[in-house]
């Protein structure tokens, strides 16, 4: 059943365990809808929404550091991948993770022809997904969202980027379907299967000022 956009309220993902608001309900029941209704809503709205098991979440704005990191990633990944079969996509690319979960990763890399669903605005075959962690969503990103990403066939890597220090965690799918974690800090670099050379963290964090 379609819910008119006027009935929606701006919401965040489930708070981290232990936080003061953790035991509050995840969503108002009015925000439950099926996939078709969600897509109608999202395509017709000025704001982006994500669908998670029938519940719709309006996406809120991000910090300056978050936006700088995402912009740096898209720019430098685009330069590094120029001429290859891979290209980075910014956070406006909707990705279908499961049949009931549609998300907007901060950065998505797709290699080869993009497999699209619907009105050419739903990506089905991400190769790499990058999430810049925020305090309000980090636990969810590392937990349920990461588990959902791992279920995507053909997804080789998931990257978590801190916005409070120079630290990047890269999880790479192995031949036996296990995931190997590599951490890079400070003067290190981001290493991805799709990249012809490591990408220095100094470029990813350019102009980012960390709180004292």
Q: How would you portray this structure in words?
A:
- The chain has 4 helices and 14 strands.
- It is an alpha+beta fold and 212 residues long.
- A 6-stranded mixed β-sheet has the order 2-1-5-4-8-7, covered by helices on one side. It has a 6-stranded mixed β-sheet with strand order 3-6-9-10-11-12, sandwiched between helices.
Order of helices and strands: HEEHEEEEEEEHEEEEEH
Mean pLDDT: 86
**Secondary structure category:** alpha+beta
Low-confidence stretches: 1-29
Strand content: 25-35%
Order of strands across the widest beta sheet?
A: 2-1-5-4-8-7
Rg to the nearest angstrom? 17 Å
Helix content: 10-25%
Shape: globular
List keywords for this structure.
6-stranded mixed beta sheet; disordered N terminus; 14 strands; alpha+beta; 21% helix; 212 residues; globular
Write the layout of secondary structure elements.
Blueprint lengths: L34 H10 L4 E4 L2 E4 L5 H18 L4 E4 L4 E5 L2 E3 L3 E5 L4 E2 L4 E2 L4 E5 L5 H13 L6 E5 L5 E7 L5 E7 L3 E2 L8 E2 H4 L8
Parallel strand pairs: 4-8, 9-10
Antiparallel strand pairs: 1-2, 1-5, 3-6, 4-5, 6-9, 7-8, 10-11, 11-12, 13-14
